[in-house]
Design brief:
Helix content: 10-25%
Keywords: Membrane, Signal, Transmembrane, Transmembrane helix
Order of helices and strands: HEEEEEEEEEHEEEEEEEEEEEEEEEEHH
Largest sheet: 6 strands, mixed
InterPro entries: Stress_up-reg_Nod19 (IPR011692)
Structural class: mainly beta
Shape: globular
Distance between the termini: 26 Å
Pfam families: SURNod19 (PF07712)
Signal peptide: 1-21
Number of domains: 2
Oligomer: single chain
Transmembrane segments: 402-420
Length: 434
Amino acid sequence: MAANFAMIMVTILALHHQTTAATNVVKTEVFRSPEIVMEPGLVSNKNYFNIDFPRGHIGLKSFNAELVDERGNPVPLHEIYLHHWVLNRYFARKNNSIDVHDDLSIVRNSGICENGLPQYFGVGAETRRTSTHIPHPYAIQVGDPATIPAGYEEGWVLNVHAIDTRGTDDKMGCTECRCDLYGFSASGGGLHCCPDDSRCRLKQGFRGENKTIYLRYTVKYVDWDSSSIIPLDIYILDVTDVWTKADQSKGIGSTHHCKVEYGVESCAAGVEKGGCVDTKSVSFSFPVGGDVVYGVGHQHAGGVGTTLYGQGGRTICSSKPIYGKGNEAGNEAGFIVGMSTCYPTPAAPVKISAGETLTLVSNYSSIESHTGVMALFYLLLAHSDPKPLPTLASKFMMVHEFVWPIVLLGAVVIATVVALKGRIENSEGYEAMQ
């Protein structure tokens, strides 16, 4: 009887373990954006609403994307430059018969820029060789019915900013959105000079064919299980952030105005190349505490690295660019094709305290001037004191509290049987101990 009971308990626990493991199975779906028709010099910077995306209450584990042609072949950066892709979440009214743009609200990440950068995921030219993987037991929680307002549904909008540099006068200048190359009289450059349907100057007499491309994106996710997954908060930091410190005595709250882009002037004549580095930094008080699970920087060509420091100068995460050395997609010479990432481990955790002063530093080569550069930092944080994940035993107890007296009784019975069996064997000699 005791043996049968023990087998039943083992079976129940095994089935429970299998059920829990099944809920954490990582699923993968591959989609592609609507077609994007490019031609030499043309800029496409469009938003695609209600894109194909996994539905339901899920935990996002990664989002990877790249530009491909009609046959699914990767498109290299030296042909069509991917300035950025950005994935935003929103709530839209169900069965909306009018333009979806008129009745939706963007669901922002956790901060810290109030005036922009609300995305859940987003990178640029470095997309192919920058990891977005989120390790177990963490995930970004979306699709929770409890957070979606009545009468609304969750949707996703994808912004893709691509620049066709085939046949252009100055490929790198086009990718930096230099205003003069786009026919604007303004000096400098940046996003305001390369809007949708604008054109970068071509070489005299150049003719080229149209090219249809897509953003192919791969989403990895798990079905949400609050008993085995820890939710993460997304924070995007910007080195151009103009931070206003809170002043409670005056009723002024903390604000962050992020400009996103800035320019790098070339270094003075006579300066050795090794000394031609433009450094920009910003310090601010971080609003919450948490454990860093993932960190990565975002820079443009010319970038030589960005680092986030904690109070006292400790390094939270340093992210360095990977430059291509060839011609094929993912290894294009002269372009940043990846950024190194930070994955702190339980053995060497990295924590941020609420109210801690953080400093973000960005370095760019200033051998040449650069326009429209960026230095963003993407952080995934778990709260320092999350609701503890139940152990297998405690989860079993929560679901099956009524059987614990039986379990305890069974343990007593088994112990008694074992003890009696031991006495009998001892009375028969030591052969049973072999």
